Amino acid sequence: MEERKNKFFGLLGKDIAYSFSRGYFTEKFEKLGLKKHKYVNFDIQKIEDFPSIIREEKENLGGINVTIPYKEVVLKYLDTLDETAKEIGAVNTIKFTKRGNLKGYNSDVVGFEKSLFPLLETHHTRALILGTGGASKAIAYALKKKGILFKFVSRNPKGKIEIAYQDLTKEILEKHQIIINSTPIGTSPNTEKSPNIPYQYLTNKHLLYDLIYNPEVTTFLAKGKEKGALIKNGYEMLQLQAEESWRIWNDH
């Protein structure tokens, strides 16, 4: 594989020292023999600092991934969006076009679909999405495409499609047999925490999916497993979305 002029790739986020992406791509570049390629963290405290990164690094940048909390607010700094990202309203991959424009994509959708859908059984027809951030929007988009009905669970619910944590009843959990945690609750180092849902109503019909991958089994997943639920963490989704980002950056 020939080396491109653009050598720099990076992750835009806040407090991202742990960064899965940096480790993943550093290893990938080594395997591919791309010695001049480098993946770095653009760890900024406010999104307003993003344009200065572009100004300083634009000549060298090949692409950027975006993580919490900037997947939605970064949109105003982009020149164009691909159709999926536009519909979702959140971006996790930025590509630099030949004209030097910034184009936003969402590879979370692909990662989520490929990692969750093989686990679905016929009774998995309704889902609860815990959280309403940028990642939850990609999940909602994928579920909608698949024909799975869903509700968001939020601390401050708005409209008919959102429900409050304290309003989750036995009936609601019996009806919604896919539960997806898109919040950062339970991430290392705060591993004892878990989203506030009535775990006592979970059964072996439930599928619990956590976007978190560190720890491997979050308290949310462990509580589901205790009830016989099928569980899956976000590690494979991250790998798949990273590969999709790489494909987008290299797709001329």
Describe the structure.
The protein has 252 residues and is α/β, with parallel strands linked by helices. The protein has a 6-stranded mixed beta sheet with strand order 2-1-3-5-6-4, sandwiched between helices. The protein has helices at residues 20-32, 50-57, 83-88, 108-116, 134-146, 170-175, 219-226, 235-250; strands spanning 8-13, 38-43, 61-66, 80-81, 93-96, 102-105, 126-130, 149-154, 162-164, 178-181, 207-210, 230-232. The two termini are 14 Å apart. The protein folds into 2 domains: 8-106, Rossmann fold (3-Layer(aba) Sandwich), CATH 3.40.50; 110-236, NAD(P)-binding Rossmann-like Domain (Rossmann fold, 3-Layer(aba) Sandwich). The protein is 31% helix and 21% strand. The model has no long low-confidence stretch (mean pLDDT 94). Strand 1 (8-13), helix 1 and strand 2 (38-43) form a beta-alpha-beta unit. Helix 4 packs across helix 8. It is globular, with a radius of gyration of 19 Å.
